[in-house]
What does this fold into?
Amino acid sequence: MARRVAGGRAPALELSVVVPIYNEEEAVAELVRRTTGVLRAAGMASELILVDDGSTDASVERIRALMDGHPEIRLIRLRRNGGQTVAMGVGFQAARGRVVVSMDGDLQNDPDDIPRLVAMIDEGYDVVCGWRKNRHDKLWTRKVPSRVANWLIARLTGIPVHDNGCSLKAYRKTVLERVRLYAEQHRFIPARAGMVGARIGEIVVTHHPRVYGHSKYGLSRIWKVFLDLFVIKMLTGFSIRPLWWFTLLSIPFAFLAAAFLVAAFLVSVRDGTAVVLLTEGLLFSFAAAQMVMVGMMGEHIVRTGRDAERAGVPVAWADGG
It folds into this structure.
């Protein structure tokens, strides 16, 4: 899906900064100037990966014009708009740095916060999340839905991150190699990394009002987030104790089956209602049994996966990244 147009092989890097770009022609020059300035001042071997997410404006042309004076820039173009998660995933795969930082391309995230995120990674964290404590966005369409979503994510996953939706995050490359992204799940990387014992940190970052263009995301993505949250709960809960969870889900069906069967025996046999009640009771009995069977199959799959992991897959992050 992606075609790399610049950036070849290079020695191992300390830092990769991944930035999805979608119709940000007005912001891209300042974004490159400020970000490369921070990277050079940090004194680390680094790269800036700009992933064009199928822009229809002049974003690509402006990036190409900037690349002559900035050899650290790598441009990756997606043939069509795939969304923020797809763009980030492509950038993560292309990243060569020991530490990978993601951020938005609209200049609401501040590149000056990058060294602070990397410093926390060097302190021993595996993922460091930015927290837009003083957020400059619309209250009802951005702030309120975000607060509700963050509260739900923290409650359901057990990872107490204040601002999962903030794109400004730092990761060990080894963490990203074990997390597959799809749908809108870039905001759930901390939760998924926490599933395998990653150490999660958080730091307050600067958030600027949008100066160029307009937001590419609105209320329509809320439903996608809630659906993805359900998937994450399945991954974090059901995958650990599938038999327990599916047996729990079978209990309502078992109660309904018992109620219908008892009612069927209490009704006169000559009454046609008894047949209906008996049929319903049997259907709910089969549903309860099927839930338990699915749980048993899930338990077998999970145990098989754990055996394979013990056989040759590392279960902890390499401390050196």
The chain has two domains: 2-238, 242-312. The CA atoms of residues 89 and 181 lie 6 Å apart. The first helix runs from residue 28 to 42.
